[in-house]
Each structure stands twice: as C-alpha cells, then as structure tokens.
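Second attempt. The first submission of Putative membrane protein had a stray character pasted in from the spreadsheet, which I only caught after the job came back as garbage. Lesson logged: always re-copy from the clean sequence file. Corrected sequence (154 aa) follows.
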Amino acid sequence: MTAPAKGPIAGWLLTVCGALGLAAAAILSYEKYRLLENPFYVPSCSVNETVSCTQIMQSAQSSAFGFPNPYLGLVGFAVVLTTGVVVLAGARLARWYWLGLAGGILAGAAFVLWLMYQSIVVIGALCPYCMVVWAVMIVLTGALARGALRARRG
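This time the job returned cleanly.
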C-alpha cells in the first residue's frame, strides 16, 4: 500500500482488516487483563491443550516489550482502520504517510511471524484471536506487496 494503492478497494481492505485486527486485539487485551488480575481465570479462547490462550498469555513471549502484546495491536490496527475510513471518505494522503503505513505493516508482519513461530513451535498452542491477527497481517502484507509491485511496474 505505497502511494499508488489508492481508491475504494484499498480503503475497504484497510477498513475491514483494521476492524478485524482491532476487535481481536481488544478481546486479547481484555482477556490478558483478566488473567493478570486473576491467575486462575480461563480466557474465552481456551478450549483444550492445543487451543489454549492461557498457555500463550502466561508465556514470556506475550509481553515481548515489557507490556502485553495486544496493546501494540490496539494502536496499530486503530491506525489501519482510521486510514481505511479516511481513504473511503475520499481524502488523498501524502506519499510519506503511505510509506510510514507500509513500514508499520512490515514491522507488524515481522513481529507476527515471530509470534506465530513462538506460539506453534515453542509454546505448542494456538489462540483463535491471535490467529485472526495473523490472518489480517498476512492479508495486509500481501496487499502491500501487490501495491509495491504495481508501483514498480509503473
């Protein structure tokens, strides 16, 4: 989603991905807060040993920067959602803004890839809300790559 990725398709993609990611991050933030408040709390996304948000939320990886990871999602997906709505409203955003958004998406994708590896390989559990975030980031990264290829072709 560099500067050439404009228009209603980009706006809808950003709006839908931003809304889904923000919803998942909000639920994860709430569940993490409840778990921090009460270590015996069972999050709504803990179904069994394999589908277990509890194992993931209690791991060191769940607070990679010293605070709960979903807080990054609250901020990042709010920006993505807002950008989508602004584009749908017809605003033209500067190239530097699109480049900054692309940088944020790439940084988010790299972090999500690391979290996916940690969840699947190291912790050995899956969190449904985390998987929503993974899917949203895959879609955003794919759209970003497509936009970059289109820009390169002219």
